Amino acid sequence: MISISLCMIVKNEEAVLERCLSSVKEAVDEIIVVDTGSGDRTKTIAEQHGAHVYDFEWIDDFAAARNTAFAKATSTYILWLDADDVLEADDLAKLQSLKRTLDPSVDSVTMRYDLSHDEFGNVTFSLRRNRLVKRSRGFRWIGAVHEYLEVGGHIINSDIAVKHRSAGKEKDPGRNLKIYERRLVKGDALTPRDQYYYANELKDHGRHSEAISYYDRFIGGGAGWIEDVISACGKLADCYHALGDRQAELEASLRALQYGAPRAEFCCRIGYAFMQRKDYEAASVWYRLATTLVPPAEHLGFHNPACHTWLPRLQLAVCLDRLGRIAEASVWNEQALSYRPEDAAMLGNRTYFLKRLQEEEAAAASGGQS
Fold this sequence. Notes:
This protein is of the alpha/beta class. It has 14 helices and ten strands. This is Glycosyltransferase.
C-alpha cells in the first residue's frame, strides 16, 4: 500500500481549513502546510490536525510556495488540495481504496475538480487535475500565478472528485491581477499561458477591451495549450457580449471551431447568438447539434455539464415554441426536466405546453365538426 503526504499552501484560511482537513485526513499519512503569512488561527487549526506547519515568506509566486510544500513531503505519493476544497464521504472512500490498490508504477492520478454547482447540486463547471503524484519523480509546479503541476510518465484517470466549496467572498479578489501587473511593471515577459490568465483577470475585473487584446494575442500566438485556446474563444465572446458587440461575440464563438470538432459549449453559445437575433430556425440547429454530442473524453480542459444535458434541450424547446412547433417543444422540455426535475421554469413550461396542446386539439376538433 502506498503512503500519502497531503501538501497545502494557506493564508488566513480559518473559515475553511478545518472542513478541508477533516474531509481527507483519514486517507493521508502526513499533512504538510506551508503558511504564506496568516494573521488568524490558520496555523493553530493545522497543528490541531497534526500538520507539520512551515512559514514561507511571500514572494508573489504560488509555484514557489507549492514546491516548498512538496519538498517537505516524505511519503511515496503527494496529494495536494486548497483550503476551500473538500472530499465528500464517497470520494474519501474511493481515495482510501485507491491507496490500497494503486500500482506503484503509476506516476500521477488525475481527479475531477468540481468548481461550481447549481441549486440542485448538479455540477456546472469542472475540469481534471493531476492530484496524486509520485514523490520520487520530483514533479514541479510552474507559474507564479495560476500555477500548474508539470507531470509525465504513467498517468491514470480516477473517478474521485474534489469539490471546491468556498466560504463566500474572495478575501483579495484583485490579488492575482496585482501580481501580473507588478510583473509587467518590472518588465517580465508573459508566457502564452500567462497571457491567457492575465486576460482572464482583466475580464473578471470588467476591463473587457484590455482582455480582448490579450486573448487575441494569446490565440494568435499559436503557442498556447489547445484547451486554453478553445476556452479563450469563449471568454473572448463573453467580453464582446459585455461590450454589446453581438456580431463580434458570434465570430469569437465560431472561432473555436477552427481548433477541433464542435463542442456542446460552443454549440450553445452559437445557438444563443442566433436566439438574440430571433433567428430561431438557425438557433435550433445548433442546440439540436449540442444534444447529440457526447461529453468530452477525460482531458484536463474545462467542462460545463449543463451544455450536454438540460440547457440545449430547454433552449430548443423555447426555439420550437417560437416557431409554433408546440408538440416538439414539449418533448424537448420534458427531456430537459429529466435532468432538473424540480426546476420551476421547466415545470411552468410543462403547464404552458399542456395548455397549448389542449387548445390545438380543441381547435382541430372544432374545425372537424364545422
